[in-house]
Amino acid sequence: MRKLWGLLAVLLLGSVMLVSVWGKFPKFVAMSEITVAQATSRLGVQLPMVGREESKRATPVESIVKPQTLSKTYYYRFGNEVPDKMVRTFEKAVAVYNETGIVNLVAGDATAHQNEIAFFAYSKEMPEDQSTYLELGKGGPEIEEVTGFQGYTANHARAGMNLKYPQSVRLSVAIHEIGHAVGLDHSHSHNSVMYPIDQGTTHLSAGDLKTLRHLYQKA
């Protein structure tokens, strides 16, 4: 029996990164693929945890990704439309994940049975009625599960940046979108690169690492 979750993942679980254009110093906002009205509404209730407990909090898991069902190895490739600057930014983000030793991201083409991340570039201008925020990027997991004697589970993920806005090509954006691709969801911890409001974080928090281990290291 074959279960294809790709369309569901793209429509419901893809990450969209937005940047506020209010004020002199803009805030970078990473939200799920929802409307800007929903995004701004949620920001009003998503308050960060504080104190020592925050660093212990595990980052949530994308709902379609099941722990310890996926190989730790991902093959990644860049679309022909991706400019050199974006390639270099994503490669730096790849190095951040590889340094953990928990996942292994390797340049190359994956088979249908293997995990992959397809990096892409796109251009999307925000409509005038949503001009408060600019969309910087999007991405997420796409799980394919095949049952039976030769069954397998693979993640055919995507991560991209919106080249309509130059502020999208940032290392923090790249790390955030790869996080979604490998199964990390938004975190309430403001120390996490997966926190909805991007603060230029270019490292993985203790909570991010805890969840990566939960997803990819066998007990």
TrEMBL record:
MF GO annotations: metallopeptidase activity
Matches recorded under InterPro entries: MetalloPept_cat_dom_sf, Pept_M10_metallopeptidase, Peptidase_Metallo
Residue stretches in coiled coil: none
EC class (word): hydrolase
Gene3D superfamilies, per database record: Collagenase (Catalytic Domain) (3.40.390.10)
UniProt superkingdom: Bacteria
Keywords annotated in UniProt: Hydrolase, Metal-binding, Metalloprotease, Protease, Zinc
Assigned EC number: 3.4.24.-
Domain Peptidase metallopeptidase: 66-218
Pfam families xref list: Peptidase_M10 (PF00413)
The protein, known as: Matrixin family metalloprotease
Native source species: Levilactobacillus lanxiensis
Lineage: Bacteria, Bacillati, Bacillota, Bacilli, Lactobacillales
